[in-house]
Amino acid sequence: MRFIKKQFARLTKYIEPIQKVEKLGEWVFDTTGKGTVDDPIQIPFVDYDDLIYKFIEDFYKFTEEHPKYELTKYQSILEENNIELDIRFMSEVKETLLDDRCILALIMGVIRIDRFSEGSLLWCFKNGCMLKWLKRLSTYD
């Protein structure tokens, strides 16, 4: 008996858990700091569920294991597909018209955007576009 390895299983295994988890993350606001030098107010941040941190870690591992996708060039891949690097625009793209490389570039784009625009990744999970992209990837396995 031959087993066919699903190349996207490392990522698509998150589809069901994402659908089941109660909170993917939440904003944390400092309500105790006074805004002084001795007691500064911490900048708000998103505290993601461990599931999301594991997903990000697995996504980066996938990227390293599959250099053929050239995901470090995610912005160029999106531009080649006429997709602007803007999460609202990215979330509205018809995933059925995209190949696996472009879907992966969308995911990488959102993960990278979140580094500079905190909450973008959480928005994409809550909006449903991340789940949509993962489901599309599962059709390639």
Question: Could you walk me through the main structural features you see in this protein, from its secondary elements to its overall organization?
Answer:
- The chain is mainly alpha-helical.
- The protein contains eight helices and two strands, in the order ααββαααααα.
- Strands 1-2 form a two-stranded antiparallel ribbon.
How many strands, which pairing sense, and closed or not: the largest β-sheet?
Answer: 2 strands, antiparallel
> Strand arrangement, largest sheet?
1-2
Radius of gyration: 17 Å
Based on CA inertia axes, which overall geometry fits? globular
SSE order, one letter for each helix or strand: HHEEHHHHHH
How much of the sequence is in beta strands? 5-15%
SSE inventory with pairings:
Elements: H1 9-12, H2 15-20, E1 25-28, E2 45-48, H3 50-65, H4 74-80, H5 87-91, H6 100-116, H7 120-127, H8 129-138
Antiparallel strand pairs: 1-2
